[in-house]
Amino acid sequence: MVKPASILKTMPVLAVLAGLGATFALAGPIEDRQAGMKQVGKAMGAFAGIAKGEAPYDAAVVKTNADAMLAGMKQAFANFTPGSEKGPPETYAKPEIWSDPEGVKAAEDTALKAVETMAATTDEAGFKTALAGLGEACKGCHTKYRRPKE
Amino acid sequence: MFWFLSAPRPLGPDAIPQHQADLANGALMFNIGGCLNCHRPDPANASANAGLPSGGAPLKTPIGTLFPPNLTPDPETGIGKWSELDFVNALARGLSPSGDHAIPAFPYTSYALMRTEDVLDIRAYLMSLTPVKAEDKPDDIPLPFFLRRGVGLWNCLGLPAAKWQPDPQQTASWNRGAYLVNGPGHCAQCHTPRTAFMTLDETRSLAGGPHPEGDGNVPSLRGLIERARYKDAKDLVSAMQFGETFGYDKLSSGGMGAVQTNLSKLPEADVQAIAEYLVSLK
């Protein structure tokens, strides 16, 4: 039995976590990794907006989004666990993720490094170079390990 | 009857127009044609130049594993000795210089729509590459030679009878886009579903279908704006040019990643032309 008081105590902690951009554990590994990837996609959207000139370059915005992306990515990568090859919910993960752990590890390391590089940028030129590397990293993994979505 | 209908029907010398080869156009056609994606060197051969189409990398298809041949101008193992007519027959008819039928994983039913001048430019571009000695590997398909002849029969159904015809009602750039998509780009080979005879179902042109390697489904290219896949033609241009770098994460799965890399190498006007054509498909 959870006392109302303990809920009240937990509330601020949850609010802080949400504020940091952390996502909560949902029903299972597929949901968790998809939520993580969604967070990655959201940050990527912010970067794309800057790259396309729809939003001004802002080092602080880049840093915030790079940190959120790193957290999302780590959450996603931690959830391709054995037994979660097939949904529901529908997953686009290819069986190669489980049959080629070394290849997956290399691709994940490349992606994590690309986000860290992005987080360390301080000017627009550095941002653009880092974004190209990040795009290649996303593409490298999706080309090999994700099925088409439609 | 079978032997008659399945006979190779090569083009004759009068199919070759007078033409001054344009290497830059040949490179452009080579890129949008995606030639290197299938004719890439065998990954087992670490010393091979990955940028040259020396062939030999395994290509998995529903009928078995193919090893696409060497397209570099090596006289023994490549296309060094091929005449212009040999090359045009390969692309427009799917026939080797000895008259053998190619397996239609090689998208000659799209290349058949191409202007012969563009095909000749690809040949000139390939002939300008460094020759690589890379022996042809026999395809690993459980198909006896006499059934391969059946491809000739299939060509009666699957091979277009005429070149791509521009639509005079449309703009020049729409027509350019339509040509690039349907001819050299051979988008239909994956994005158009197939009939029971494995020919392209033209009634559902570019409407998506099962992935040829069994990787789920290939998306439809119709109604891209109406279905909110892209905001407008400009958005689609960005997606083709920049892919995941601009957050367009759908252009890398199922083999599209290599295609997007090719699209990123095209002149911007051509990418805009492709977008103009695609968004007009309802």
Explain the overall architecture.
The complex is a heterodimer of chains A (150) and B (282). In chain A, 69% of the residues lie in helices and 0% in strands. With 150 residues, chain A is mainly α. Chain A has a single domain, classed as Four Helix Bundle (Hemerythrin (Met), subunit A). In chain A, helix 3 (59-77) packs antiparallel against helix 5 and helix 5 (101-119) packs antiparallel against helix 6 (124-145). Chain A is elongated, with a radius of gyration of 17 Å. Chain B has 282 residues and is mostly helical. Chain B folds into 2 domains: 11-158; 172-279, no CATH class. Chain B is 37% helix and 4% strand. Chain B has 13 helices and 4 strands. Chain B has helices at residues 2-5, 23-33, 35-38, 84-93, 108-111, 116-127, 145-148, 150-158, 172-182, 188-191, 233-242, 256-264, 268-279; strands at residues 59-61, 64-66, 209-210, 217-218. In chain B, the strands form 2 sheets. A two-stranded antiparallel sheet of chain B has the order 1-2. In chain B, strand 3 (209-210) and strand 4 form a beta hairpin. In chain B, helix 2 (23-33) packs across helix 6 (116-127) and helix 9 packs across helix 13 (268-279). The radius of gyration of chain B is 19 Å and the shape is globular. Chain B starts with a helix and ends with a helix. The A-B interface holds A 41, 44-45, 47-48, 51-52, 92, 94, 131-132, 134-136, 138-139, 142-143, 146-150 and B 208, 211, 215-220, 238, 242-247, 249-250, 252-254, 256-258, 260.
Would you summarize the structure shown here?
The complex is a heterodimer of chains A (150) and B (282). Chain A has 150 residues and is mainly alpha-helical. Chain A has 6 helices and no strands.
